[in-house]
Request: fold
Amino acid sequence: MLSALVVLILGAMLILAVAGGRRFPLVNKVVATVLLPIEDGINAILHGGDNVREFWRALTALRLKNKELVKENQKLKQEYINMIALQKENENLHKLLNYKKEHADQKVVAAKIVAKNFGDLRDTVYINVGTAQNVAADMAVVTENGLIGIIDETYEEYSRVLLVTSPNCRIGAKVATAGYDSSGIIHGIHETEEFLVMEHIPRKASVKEGDLVVTNGYSGKHPENIYIGQIVSVQMDAAGLLQEADLRLMEDVVGLENVLVIIDFNPKLKITNKGGRAR
Reply:
């Protein structure tokens, strides 16, 4: 009831202020004192509503822009990753091309590793070339750093490569500086992918730390003098009759992406293997 009365009084004062002009200065002063703050408050509320609407519009626009930037950022990241991968592949292919130029006596086929299988006694990778590209079993698989494995099994469009790091991979080898008198057989060690073992080295062969080990080519399936690794230690075998050596493989077989398969070479030994263990 009191609030209604106050409203009526204020309304009457407002009418007098508007109609009376200069005749009621006291009323005008009271009206200005009472109503102007109320008007300012109402205007502030109205403007505040406009500000809130502007804020939400700006926030919505900012969120949309942020989504666009995130999407663009993801696209740029993927393009960068693709560019780095392409650059790395080009570098690898360039190195393989250098190998091909330096070994004009070898006919090679470039291949890409499409699958890997590590961690068991048959460490293998699969490459995207096969019998359709004249690839056959026991052919050497190399990179610019040397031998990394041999063809273990072939299909029309792909092949399985048995890596030199596998204990099941046995390849005839020799010490480059000592010749055929230092021939032996190398194979992998299941505890590591970095070192190989060379066994059955003649007792009197001149073999020492730092010597380079290469293929001996006895099998006739791949050329001799393909680089394999470097000797890090030499000792007698358990029976004390022959020497054996540990050697470090120079190629990182885990990180391989591109390789070459040697499908033909000259001169080629005509040897028939009738039961030998080395390939």
